[in-house]
Model the fold of this input.
Amino acid sequence: MQNQSWKDKAACLGEKVDDYFDNYEEDVELRSVIDQVCRECPVRKMCFAAGVSGKETGVWGGVYLEQGDISREFNKHKARENWAKTWQSLITDK
Done:
């Protein structure tokens, strides 16, 4: 089993798990709040990688995935500048 101790450092630790899955799908206003939490999370890269490699569904590293693939439907609310910030946070060392 892969070491998942990174989860203990996640910005969403202790938050309602459903906010990153079903509630994210249903509540358009919640999406921007979750996006911001993820963008500032210190383990967002590991989270995103885990979501993609595990073929997960839900928000992983600030990107909504469906079976490990980026969901167009549940990410279309993001403005171009927000996508840029999200991707920048996933590819830089900061």
